[in-house]
Amino acid sequence: xxxxxxxxxxxxxxxxxxxxxxxxxxxxxxxLVDRGETPGAKNLSGGVFYSAVMDEVIPDFTQRAPVExxxxxxxxxxxxxxxxxxxxxxxxxxxxxxxxxxxxxxxLDRWLAEQAEEAGVAVVxxxxxxxxxTEDGRVCGLAxxxxxxxxxxxxxxxxxxxxxxxxxxxRSRQPxxxxxxxxxxxxxxxxxxxxxxxxxxxxxxxxxAMVGEATQGVAGGGFCYTNRSSVSIGVVxxxxxxxxxxxxxIEIHDAFLAxxxxxxLIDGGERVEYGCHMTIESGASVDASLVGDGIVVVGDAAGLxxxxxxxxxxxxxxxxxxxxxxxxxxxxxxxxxxxxxGLSSYVTRLAASPAGADIxxxxxxxxxxxxxxxxxxxxxxxxEAAYRLYRHDxxxxxxxxxxxADALRRSGVxxxxxxxxxxxxxxxx
Length: 429
Hints:
The chain is of the alpha+beta class. Helices cover 35% and strands 27% of the residues. The protein contains 17 helices and 19 strands. It has helices at 14-25, 61-64, 92-96, 105-118, 163-167, 191-197, 239-243, 249-257, 263-266, 315-335, 340-343, 345-352, 354-362, 372-376, 378-390, 400-411, 415-428; strands spanning 5-10, 30-34, 47-49, 69-79, 84-90, 101-103, 122-125, 131-135, 138-144, 147-156, 179-188, 204-212, 220-226, 230-238, 270-280, 291-292, 295-297, 306-307, 312-313. Strands 3, 4, 5, 6, 11, 12, 13, 14 and 15 form a nine-stranded mixed β-sheet that branches. Strands 1, 2, 7, 8, 9, 10, 16 and 17 form an eight-stranded mixed β-sheet that branches. Strands 18-19 form a two-stranded antiparallel sheet. The protein is elongated and about 85 Å long.
């Protein structure tokens, strides 16, 4: 079959650009198609990228890419109505290792597409795919209006609601309990204010994960990531849990920003970006559904995200899936077999990678985060106990064990409930 490109990648996010770049580095003719005016133009800014995987395709990634800050401090906060109880992890080794970095996706995605273009990828922006071309049951390209582009392989990197994967019956619509609504603001504070307020050095950054009053009883959590001169801040809400209430995701987001432990972080700032985004909260798996005749599915389109409470991972899994897919496609093109069988090493490559091992290990953690006590009771127990531990008045102070026992008794949370959640945490995290 005559083709315009060896491979057409649809979607200019992390997964799409990394896959296209790697294939071009391997010597293949590749097109990267994105519906935005530029790749990343439609991406809601902000996130933490666990970026070690990127060194395989772009050495010294954090030194070359437009990253915002290297995350050296992580805060896990249990919010109550009046404050919070928290766990802080701060370590200069995390910055030295460039273990994680905050990024603004509009900047990062545009830069990644530029790297792909410099490597020889034909980047085609502003193109909305109308349909996928098939021939004898095999995917062989795509159509935009009356125009057709043909290829040996198509890579679906078109996001959580992947039109391509769903149109080919490779994926069905995710159930509501596996989906989440993210509502995010970017608040400009100025570089000096960011450093002083969050006690950061020149390049270091901080990431906050918050549960409890952050989501007003809805399964999910709040987050705050420091950028160079701004913060990305907002909530992620499990769709099924949200629909069980009469609450609005926007109202929860706005109340979160006004919380007494959150408002000081953004005081005096200017909102420069605001938006909502659907994401996959649970259900990530590496299996044969990611491959078809002439096609592979990567990144968010493949449902590859992990929420382990203290960290939300998506970009690193997207990059890992892209690299595994590129290796499999390269071998399939060399062998002249781009059928499902010829491309199947994508699944085995991804499963054998560190990202694949993490998906297998941590995907069950989603059951822990559906525990209502984690959002409704536990933060209040911790907050009440901590308040009474640190409050000293004219009366004799109670023993710590009595304070904790009374806080549990008042909340209605039993030792059995705590033990069950603890066991889930130990088992899954």
